[in-house]
Write a structure and sequence with these properties.
alpha/beta; two-stranded antiparallel ribbon; ten-stranded mixed sheet
Length: 502
């Protein structure tokens, strides 16, 4: 009797388990097919003084749905728009985003151009909260409306239902999604006739150039007045740190020299960082570029001459340079330059220093110029969006690292070589040739090793580029030059002049 009861109970339990297992996919399907709620949007009104002008503006923060051909929502793009009150349809509009790929727009939003900004100590760790959030007099709202965009997988942006977010994670797919968002924004706001600017930082510069190909490279064009490139990376092939590729050493050398100059390690230093950069450019494209391709055929006399000048420019010992075979990688440089002080230097901004677990390692434990700022920006973005802009959501704001498996293949470029050597730079050259009104702003920090300034100069000095419409500006900081107050003011003034000089 007990055996029969036990078997019956076991059968009942198994039946319930099987039914539950069979029910789970059905529930997931039903949840995926459930009606999608309307986009989550908050609208608030504000006043501020920007560029010395009092501005009343409306902030619209929230979701815009990307849809399939049948109108089914596939993804929600979170963006924050700041539009000056008064309805001027001829006023410029600037679309901004950050990089990664996988970074939200909080860095440019809360650090440079939004109406509020977080205050950080320059070239020091941000410590613990609270972090001051202040009115940003350097915001560009006096000359342009602003839209800060978070691509799918960043910020509060996400795929909807069964849509795989990875469908948006690639150079071309990402650019298509942002182009679609811009078209929808122009439709919804009646701004097709407004002067238009697009801009990004770091991988955001890659996105900008892929995006201009999407906006202007079709028959349904959106003509753009200007592209704003901040801390630029366009040519990934030239900067690829793989054995046998000599170009990264040439392109990185000027950033090593400016860093050595800043930390007072450069031998016989010139008076200014700009002069240090120019000395390094001349050596990099002259004797250094001539020596590296010779490899083990380099003569002892030429090797000794190159070694001596390379050591002077970089602040490293001739012995270290010799052991590295005249090819010092960035990671080794970060660790070696101030090793005698027990310090490593930053990657995003080489002015920052950090202490590692020990001083004997080959590369730093982490990037002191990133962990010095990330806490403050994350707190500022979440606090500002939820409190002042009244955006209500249970989602976490993804600051960086929210994507994976990025597809680097480029649309319109086929064959083995295009996959091995990835560069979006040709898109920009084509856009300049086909839009006579397009101009390009390039802002670079002297102490940025994530996207070295000489790499940007190299990418945009190739055949097919109109140099007269590419405007370079340099700053006494690193990748996020706006963390330095003087450079925030300079960057804002430079871009303001770029936009108003139509």
């Amino acid at each position: 009797m007990r055996l029969t009861s036990s078997l019956a109970a076991l059968a009942l339990a198994l039946s319930a388990t099987i039914a539950h297992a069979q029910d789970e996919p059905r529930k997931k399907d039903e949840a995926a097919e459930a009606p999608v709620p309307a986009p989550n949007v908050s609208v608030t009104r504000h006043k501020g003084v920007f560029g010395g002008k009092a501005i009343s503006y409306t902030a619209t923060t929230g979701e815009t749905y990307l849809k399939d051909k049948d109108g089914k929502p596939l993804a929600a793009i979170y963006a924050t728009s700041y539009v000056k009150d008064g309805g001027d349809r001829n006023r410029p509009i600037t679309f901004l985003y950050n990089g990664g790929p996988g970074s939200g727009s909080l860095w440019l939003h809360m650090g440079a151009f939004g109406p509020k900004r977080v205050v950080l100590p320059d070239a020091q760790d941000d410590g613990a909260p609270p972090y001051p959030l202040v009115d940003n007099a350097e915001s560009l709202l006096d000359v342009t409306d602003l839209v800060f965009i978070d691509p799918v997988g960043t910020g509060f942006s996400h795929a909807i239902g069964k849509k795989d977010p990875k469908d948006y994670w690639g150079v071309s797919a990402d650019a298509k999604s942002i182009a679609e968002f811009i078209r929808l924004w122009l439709n919804d706001n009646g701004r097709w006739s407004s002067p238009k600017y697009i801009g990004g930082e770091s991988y955001g510069t890659t996105r900008s150039v892929a995006l201009i190909n999407e906006l202007e490279g079709t028959y349904n064009d959106i003509a753009v007045n200007g592209i704003i490139l901040i801390s630029t990376i366009l040519d990934f092939g030239a900067s690829a740190e793989v054995q046998g590729n000599e170009m990264p050493y040439i392109l990185n050398l000027p950033s090593m020299a400016t860093t050595a100059w800043y930390h007072k390690r450069m031998g016989n230093p010139p008076a200014t960082v700009a002069e240090a950069a120019q000395q390094a450019r001349a050596f990099a494209t002259g004797p250094y570029a001539a020596a590296l391709p010779k490899g083990n055929q380099l003569s002892p006399q030429e090797r000794a001459s190159v070694r001596t000048e390379l050591a002077r420019l970089t602040g490293l010992s001739e012995s270290f340079v010799d052991h590295a075979d005249l090819r010092v990688t960035p990671g080794r440089f970060y660790k070696e330059l101030l090793r005698d002080q027990g310090l490593s230097i930053g990657r995003l901004d080489t002015r920052y220093t950090g202490k590692d677990y020990d001083a004997a390692g080959e590369e730093p434990d982490n990037d002191p110029s990133f962990y010095a700022i990330d806490g403050a920006y994350t707190a500022a973005m979440n606090s500002y969006a939820r409190d002042e802009l009244k955006y209500r959501t249970d989602r976490s704001y993804v600051t960086i690292g929210g994507v994976s498996g990025w597809d680097w293949k480029l649309q319109g470029q086929r064959g083995r070589d295009s996959e091995v050597y990835a560069s979006v730079a040709p898109y920009l050259g084509k856009a300049l040739r086909e839009n006579s009104g397009l101009k390009v702003f390039v802002g670079q920090g002297w102490y940025d090793f994530a996207t070295p300034f000489f790499g940007a100069e190299y990418a945009m000095s190739r055949t097919g580029f109109d140099a007269s419409r590419i405007h370079y500006h340099y700053y006494d900081a690193g990748h996020m030059m706006y963390v330095r107050p003087d450079d925030l003011r300079k960057l804002s003034a430079d871009i303001r002049a770029f936009i108003t000089s139509r």
